[in-house]
Each structure stands twice: as structure tokens, then as C-alpha cells.
């Protein structure tokens, strides 16, 4: 599998429930899935990621992140399509300016994997693909606001863009003097590790801005040797790597699981940055962990391990000046 290019791996990713069940050795009768949910948000899992799922284990923590359970059909009023009301914070389509000093750019609607708990699962993909059209306006907006010193490339996943497109984005942002840092939010190092190459990273750093990567990893089982190799490329070029996770029921909702994850991250020289409360997006209520339980987990971590192994527990709240810390 490793000899396939990342584009081939993406093209050949698992896309049907039958194929997924077969791959992990489970019967549809024993687990059940939502046909309705996958019409709107299809399954997408590269084999190379799926091979970290334990065979014949319906509770595997990686399987649970990507499996369209029947519970996705549950209609729960507090869970909505756009829980963060992101449409209200876009001065230019595809550019989110919610917090001072930084803007977040939705570079693409596409991802290398479809995470079922994702708050962007109802994202209007057609609009996102027209994003390129709005980029020049986005750049002008950034140029005209000198209070912005950081641009975050997000999505979707910015690393599903071609090397050329990424180069265009990063060189154009780097041309703006008041931008000091460019941050890349991506799940690619853990999902399609061989997408990160020295050639690409050399290009990205060549414009002289500080580059920061923020990975998205929820469980220690996601980390393997291939991931380590891709992270080492980033470190070779002195790029800081942080990780954000989402607190997910049945996946990582215990202090021990999160401690194992943090230890493994630190072994890979990745700093545990944020632990996000789930955003109340429709179809994801079955992943919710209560705030009380979340606080208990963090308290238990704090009482057990080094401070840098404890990520900041935060929630995204509409109208706040930054992520809201859940622990004071
Ligand atoms: C999370 C987020 C950021 C980055 O927040 P940090 O606390 O700096 O990591 C920026 N913009 C938006 C819209 C975000 O959702
Ligand atoms: S990779 Fe990120 S944006 Fe894409 S589905 Fe997963 S959580 Fe959502």
C-alpha cells in the first residue's frame, strides 16, 4: 500500500459500508449503519488508516471515528447543521475572522478522511470549491488589516491541495509583511503520511515565515511508524507541531486513554495543545461527553502526569474572543 502515491491512496479509499465492514471483519447485522447519513456525508477512509483498526472489534476507537452508526439519524434539537454559526464571521467567503490577530482560511472543502463527529460535516462543498475564486479578496482583506499577524490554513484539509496550489497560497500570504506566522491545520500526517515530503516542506518554509503545524489525532492507536516519519520531516525543518483532539465518547473519554495519547504524542515530539468539547453538530450527539465528565478527566490527568501532557480543555462558543477554557 505504501508504494501508492497519496493521490492513488485517496482515490482508492474505502467509500462504502460493505467494503468497510468487510475490511474490519464485521457483519452488518451485528453493527448496523445509516444509509441516510452516508448519502449526505459519505464514508471516506484510506486503507492505510483503516489498517490501524482492530479486526472484528465493533468498539475499536479508530473505527468509532469513521463508522456511520444508526445513531446519526437521531434528531436531537440542540444538535444543528452549523453549530458555530460560521457564516456570520466571514468577511470574505471562505475566510473566518472570529478572533483577533488571526484569520482562518477554508482552503478547500475536501478531506482525506471523513470523521463522523466533524462540525463541518454539513459544509456546503460546492461553495467551498468555489473558494479559489474568492482568494484574491481574502488576500486583500488580510493585507488591509494590520492587526492580523497569523493566517491559519484549514478546511477541509489544506494538504489535499496540490503542491502547486499550496505553494501559491503560501507564497501569496508570505508576500504580506505584517503576517509573521502561517499555521496549517491538517489530519494528513496521520491519515496519508506519505503526502508530507521534504520537497513540499522545503517549499513551504522557503518564504521565510514561521510555519506551525497543528495535527488532529484522537487516540494513540492512530500513531505508527509512518506517522513518525512524516512528523520527523517537519522537525527536520524546525517546524513546531501541536496536536488537537476532540473529546469523544467511547473513543478517548478516559484519563488513561488521553494520557497514553499524550505520552505517545510527546514521544513523537508533538505538543498536546487542545482537547475540544464536541461541537453540537447534528448526527454526532452519540459522541458527546458531558462537561462534568470532561472536567473530571482533566483533573485526573493533572493529578497524575506532567503538566505538558495535559491539553487545554476548550469549547468553541459563538461570540467569544477565543476558544473558551473549560477549566479555570
Ligand atoms: C480555533 C480557531 C482559531 C485558532 O484559535 P487558536 O486559539 O489561536 O488556536 C482561529 N480562528 C477560528 C475561526 C477558529 O475556529
Ligand atoms: S479531517 Fe478534519 S475537517 Fe475533515 S472530516 Fe475530519 S475533522 Fe472534519
Task: Detail the topology: elements first, then pairings.
Blueprint: H1 6-11, H2 17-24, H3 28-31, H4 35-40, H5 47-50, H6 63-66, E1 95-99, E2 102-106, H7 125-129, H8 131-144, E3 150-154, H9 163-174, E4 181-186, H10 188-191, H11 198-205, E5 210-216, H12 225-236, E6 240-246, H13 255-267, E7 271-276, H14 291-302, E8 312-315, E9 324-325
Parallel strand pairs: 2-3, 3-4, 4-5, 5-6, 6-7, 7-8
Antiparallel strand pairs: 1-2, 8-9
Helix pairs in contact: 13-14
Explain briefly what this protein structure is.
The chain has 328 residues and is α/β, with parallel strands linked by helices.
Walk me through the structure.
The protein has 328 residues and is an alpha/beta fold. The protein has 2 domains: 6-73, no CATH class; 86-325, TIM Barrel (Alpha-Beta Barrel). It is 34% helix and 14% strand. The chain is built from 14 helices and 9 strands. The protein has helices at residues 6-11, 17-24, 28-31, 35-40, 47-50, 63-66, 125-129, 131-144, 163-174, 188-191, 198-205, 225-236, 255-267, 291-302, and strands at residues 95-99, 102-106, 150-154, 181-186, 210-216, 240-246, 271-276, 312-315, 324-325. Strand 3, helix 9 (163-174) and strand 4 form a beta-alpha-beta unit. The longest helix is centred in the middle third of the chain and has 14 residues, at 131-144. Pyridoxal-5'-phosphate binds at residues 96, 98-99, 102, 104, 152, 322-323.
